[in-house]
Each structure stands twice: as structure tokens, then as C-alpha cells.
Amino acid sequence: MSNSDPKARPKPGPWPPAPESSAMPPSSWAKRTGFRPKFSGETNASDSGQMPLPPRARETDNQPDLEAGRVRPQPQPPPAVANGQVQSNKPAAALPTPPAAADKEKDQSVKKRRESIGGAPKNSSPGTNLRAAPSSNEQPPPPRRPSRNGEVVDVLPQPTVDEDGFMGRPSHMKYELRDSPGLVPIWFFGFQHYLSMLGSLVLIPLVIVPAMGGRHEDVAAVVSTALFISGVTTLLHTSFGSRLPLIQGPSFVYLAPVLAIINSPEFQGLKGNNFKHIMREIQGAVIIASAFQTLIGYSGLMAILVRLINPVVVAPTIAAVGLSFYNYGFPLVGNCLEIGMVQILLVIIFSLYLRKISVFGHRVFLIYAVPLGLAISWTAAFLLTEAGVYNHKGCDINIPPSNAVSEHCRKHMTRVKYCRVDTSQALKASPWFRFPYPLQWGTPVFHWKMAIVMCVVSLIASVDSVGSYHASSLLVASRPPTPGVLSRGIGLEGLSSVLAGLWGTGTGSSTLTENVHTIAVSKMGSRRAIEVGACILILLSLVGKVGGFIASIPQVMVAALLCFMWAMLTALGLSNLRYSEAGSSRNIIIVGLSLFFSLSVPAYFQQYGISPNSNMPVPRYFEPYIVAFHGPFRTSNHGFNYVMNTLLSLHMVIAFLVAVILDNTVPGSKQERGVYVWSDREGVRREPAVAKDYELPLRVGKFFVWVKWVGL
Description:
Layout: H1 27-33, E1 64-65, E2 70-71, E3 80-82, E4 85-87, H2 99-117, E5 159-161, E6 167-170, H3 185-196, H4 198-212, H5 216-240, E7 248-250, H6 255-262, H7 274-298, H8 301-305, H9 311-323, H10 329-333, H11 337-353, H12 364-367, H13 369-386, H14 407-419, H15 426-429, H16 448-476, H17 483-503, E8 509-511, H18 515-522, H19 527-541, H20 544-551, H21 555-574, H22 585-607, H23 638-647, H24 651-665, H25 670-673, H26 681-686, H27 688-694
Antiparallel strand pairs: 1-2, 3-4, 5-6, 7-8
Helix pairs in contact: 3-19, 4-5, 4-6, 4-21, 5-17, 5-19, 5-20, 7-16, 7-17, 9-16, 9-21, 9-22, 9-24, 11-13, 11-21, 16-17, 16-18, 16-23, 22-24
């Protein structure tokens, strides 16, 4: 008989009601088997036999705990009760395990688990947080509806689980952090990684050197120097930095401030070789900013600042970097639409429509979308040039269109200049062998106003690297790095930028944002393969003809590739929102305000004081970077005017300021904000597998044990 007392009646279950499940086991069965109840009311059921419906299991129970490095333990399904007897969930052929044998098996599993982590005391009893891995003869749990976080499977796939229940190598990754592909494949995978990121490595010199007034051979020399520094700094970073397989190189974060320095008022009236003079100014600013970034990293200050940097801050900041160059992209492509549009369409077709086509197990179209599109469009432009499509008699491409005497030449000169592939003499002028050396452009020149601008930009580059460290570690490593490893990586990036400033690459060195996409697509996260690829890059940089060949890429094709690269950079920045509650109204408003003001505020500064018919000393696509001429700050201190007008005209600076202030002042839970969770220093030391991922090689770490904020 059921109890008629209303107070004794069970409370209604959750809504919507969970599907019917078998009755819960009696208390005696729970005591014999060691079953620990997970639901309230299981062991204190009323005498009437009524049992409240258990709440639904959380959808994320079967998801791996990426921060803890292991799979969350699953509650065993309770046995069904039929006619007063317990029915086992195991197959009929399996014999029931005696209680003594079950306890012995559990003790052995607990002991094995402790030995693997190396941190549990020997004389402690089996804890409630250690559970043996499910045996192979148990039926798998029924499939559940994938959670909202399951939408990022392509970027953050499910890892495999070993027999002890720990998270192993992600099932989609071919090679993890400490894996070696083998003597022959390692050369292929290393070169493949760099080839897939060709655009990020070489396109920046093709933009800034012509803007400085450099010649074709100057472009080739800067390209070779950038390749050399990229290889050297990548080796340093994988050995003494964060130790993650991340390529270092000229970052797009530095491109906008460099263009602002190039178009400064004091450089407009220079005569002679403007390139070397402006390059020395940029070198001085980069060296001071790099020293500032090194101080932030190795002093441990980055471990404190990282508390303010979360996905809601990283996403709009990096997205603003890509969106800020819309003035440069398609306006240059329009100078030769038949070549530029073919380039863009080819890259889109390869990276989207043909992305799932595999050749010998490799998604060649997705991995090599940029070099394949460049090769095909360059070949088409060469055939059109040789066929005489762009020939115009009596017109010299070396004469500016405004100085041409013939009306016919003035009309077609722009088309001839941008569509022909034989206008550059970089390949012929480049030597076969050239060794980049420091101070090759002369002694750097230091000005405090340009150095302050670069210091702020180096902080933005550090924010970009924080997002790359976290995302790449979840793909290739057992756990995210500790705050000390994070600081160590930022400090080494500062030293790498010092090398870039001394050698004269035109920008600072930083972790390229495209690393995360390349690792996820190529399924290759081997640190050793990246190091081999860096060695190949250093060897190629010594061949002067390689730099000359890259420098001879037509400007229209460069602009077309940059359209795709900047769009990818914007998307990769916004993809950081997957670690937060992207549907939260709080995050939506913060990201929306950050992106809008990052476009609107710089537009105010860039257009302030410009009359519609005014003649600017630079091309129209460089007009946003001459704000120091006419910005709203017009005090008696010209240096202060330059710093404020330049910084507030940079899209990424405005996005970072708005996002970091709002995200750290507007209330929100850690889950809603998606706060980055970094590994604990003591916890990593107890797990040898995780320690090997990040510890310094050759016993170097033992000399820095006392520096707790830059290591394990």
C-alpha cells in the first residue's frame, strides 16, 4: 500500500520528464558491490516502494575533461529489478564476479592509476575520485544527443582513451607533440607545414618594402631575411619557449603600425634611398617594443595579465586585425580583375568545395589552397603575357601613367603594370647565395614616439599568442601549459622580435595565428617535424633566387591572397568564442560593441580634417595610415599628437580596449565568459607525460628551478 500522506509523497521529477528507467537497486546490493548513489533519495526510499524519477544525466558526462587531461568518470548503469530479483546488465555468457575478486581488481586498478600519476600516497585507502576503467565486456552507453560544444569537432576533436581512463592522443591527430613521423616522412610533414602557411610568411615584405620606396632586389632581400628569422625563431620557440609546434614569423598584427610609421610626415620629403632610412626607424621601434615584451614575459607579469585575457577579449581583437585592411584588399585586385578574381575564386574552391578530397590520405586542396591557387593564376597570367594580350606599342611600364605623353598609354598603363608578370626584375637581380646578417640596413634609429606605438602593438601580439597557445595545446598536448610556460613563451617571442629588429625584417616576430588552423587541417602536431621544417626554411633563405622568385609575384596576386588571408585571420579570431557561451547576451553585446567601435572610432580619426578634394601624398589604400597629418589631437607636443592619433586609429587597439574593459567589469560566470583554464604547476609535475611536453630540454630547466613564474 502506498502512503497517502501528502508530505510523504515524492516530489515531481524534472521537466521535461526523463525517460523511464529501471528501478534503483536496494541498499543491500549497493553495499555488496560498492555502488555509490548519484541521485538524491536512492538509499532512503519510502517503505511503499515508490521511487522518485532520477534527474536526467548531463549531456557533457561523456565528454573528455580537456583541462584535467582525462575522461570524466561515468556512472555505471544500475541493474534492472524484475520480480524482486536483480538482473545483471552484462551478457548472459559472462559469469558474475565474486565480491572479493571485484575488490581485488579495483585495488589493482587504483594502484596502477596512482603509479601513472605519481602523486598519490601509498598508504591511503582507495578514494572516491579514482574509479577503474570500464571493462571491455560491458555494453557501451547508449548514444546521446551531442552537446553544444560538439560543434567544434573539426577543430577540437574527441581524444582517445587508454585502458586506465586517461586521455591519450586525439583520434584525429596523426602525430602528437612528442611523436616523430620517421626519418623520411618528417621532412615531408615539416616542409608541408611551412608551405601551407606560405602567405603568412612572405606577403608582408611584399607590401611594406614597395611602400618604403624599395627596389625589387630590396624586396627579395627582405623576403630572404624574413624566412631566415622565421626558421631561427621557430627553433628557439620549440626548444626554449612554450615548446608547442607553433611557427614564428612576421605577424599581421605589426602590419598596420608599420604602415603608419612608413607614412609619417617626416618621411614624406626624403630624397635618395628612402627604404634604408625608414627601415632603420622601424628597426629601432621594433627593438624597444621587443625589449618591453621580453620584460613582460620573463618578469612573470604576463602570468598576471593573462587573468584579464579571455576568449571574449581575444576574439574581437584578432578579428579586428583582419578587418582593418579592407581598404587594401579588393581595391588593388580591381586593377586587374581577370587575374585577381581568378586567384580568389581558386583559393575559395580549393579550401571550401574541394576540402574533403584526399590524395594518398592528405587533403591536398585544403592544405595547399594558397600555393595551388597562386601557381595556377600565375601560370595563366604568364600565358596571357606571352600571348601579347597586355602589349601596348609605345608604352613604357617604367614611366608613371601621369607622365605618359600618349593618351592611349595613360589609359592602359595601369592595366599593363598590374597584369603583366614580367614587370619585376627581382629574380634576375637576386644573387644565387646571400647570407642575411644583422644590421644589414645600417644602425637602427630610435624615436620614443614610434617606440611607444610599437610597445602597445607588442601587447596586442601577446594577446594573439595567448589564444594560439591555448587552442594548439588542446590539439597536440595532454594539457594546456602552465602560466609559467605561457610567460616563458611570451618572453621568448620578445627575444625573437629583437632578432627580427636587428636583422631588419620590417616587423616584429610573433606566433602566427594560422598555426591552429594548419595543425587541425594537416592533423600533424609533431614538434620535431616543425623543427625539421625550420631547418629547411633556413637553408632556402640562403638561396637568393628563392627570395627573388617570391618577390616577383605580381602585386595583384599578392592583394588577392591577402584578401583570403585576412578573411581567415578574422574567422580564426572569432573562433575563440567556442570556448565561451557564444549565445550569451553578455558576450554578444561585448563582442558586437568591440567590433563596431574598432571600425567606427578609427574611421573618425582617419577622416578627421580631410577635405573631399584634398590631394594626399600616398595612394588611396594607404590613406588610413597618414592620420598623424590631420588627427584630432593637435596639442603643442607633436610627439604626443603622433602617439594618440596613431594608436586610436588602429582597429585592433580599440577592439582590445573595449573588450578587455567590458569583459572584466560586466558580471558573468566563468563558464559564460569561457575563462581560459591553465594547468597547475604542481599538478603538471606529478604527471611525467605532461611535464615532458613543456619542460626545457638538455637539463636547462634545472638551472631555472628558482624562477617559478617562467617554467614548470
